[in-house]
């Protein structure tokens, strides 16, 4: 099977990935759904989480992460310049930015994703945020939504301000947890 771009992300019931200030404290950090986050999707945890949990990245689900500049900023603010050293890290920005040598900055993330998809490897994790996901929406092969039982009312939308363009996704799997989180997986219709 060819390499996929997978948008794996926490989202509110009303489709927001962060509150209007960019925070996500309203998402549940504890509960039985974390068995998936810390297990099957442990490649999508930052290195400081692996250290805190005493685990190693499995390197079985993703080998690359793609994120927008605003998504990297909280890590930079915390003094972490390379949050996912076990992955190839691609960060989108249209500006000249200083980044860690382990991070590749690109002004053309769509082209980079096309190049990566043409290469062999594990799937590519589209980390977010909404603006980048909106730009890469035509290239998204799979959605894995961690849908938390909370309504935000407003915030950062799942696909930013992407223009209307209905695109069907077929349901693949849905797992409901006692915590109230539902992990839903959809594959893009080809
Ligand atoms: N719920 C979750 O699991 C989750 C996961 C990730 C992020 N988030 C949240 O998402 C929020 C950030 O989302 P966001 O929509 O504000 O920003 P974002 O997509 O993370 O970053 C936007 C920036 O990325 C660059 N960019 C985006 N599209 C581009 C393109 N097509 N070409 C070149 N550069 C591009 C631009 O950077 P420049 O301005 O430098 O040009 C743009 O300003 C944060 O609050 C974060 O907490 C939530």
UniProtKB/TrEMBL annotation:
<dbReference type="InterPro" id="IPR024072">
    <property type="entry name" value="DHFR-like_dom_sf"/>
</dbReference>
<dbReference type="GO" id="GO:0008703">
    <property type="term" value="F:5-amino-6-(5-phosphoribosylamino)uracil reductase activity"/>
</dbReference>
<dbReference type="InterPro" id="IPR050765">
    <property type="entry name" value="Riboflavin_Biosynth_HTPR"/>
</dbReference>
<dbReference type="GO" id="GO:0009231">
    <property type="term" value="P:riboflavin biosynthetic process"/>
</dbReference>
<feature type="domain" description="Bacterial bifunctional deaminase-reductase C-terminal">
    <location>
        <begin position="5"/>
        <end position="182"/>
    </location>
</feature>
<dbReference type="Pfam" id="PF01872">
    <property type="entry name" value="RibD_C"/>
</dbReference>
<dbReference type="InterPro" id="IPR002734">
    <property type="entry name" value="RibDG_C"/>
</dbReference>
<protein>
    <recommendedName>
        <fullName>Bacterial bifunctional deaminase-reductase C-terminal domain-containing protein</fullName>
    </recommendedName>
</protein>
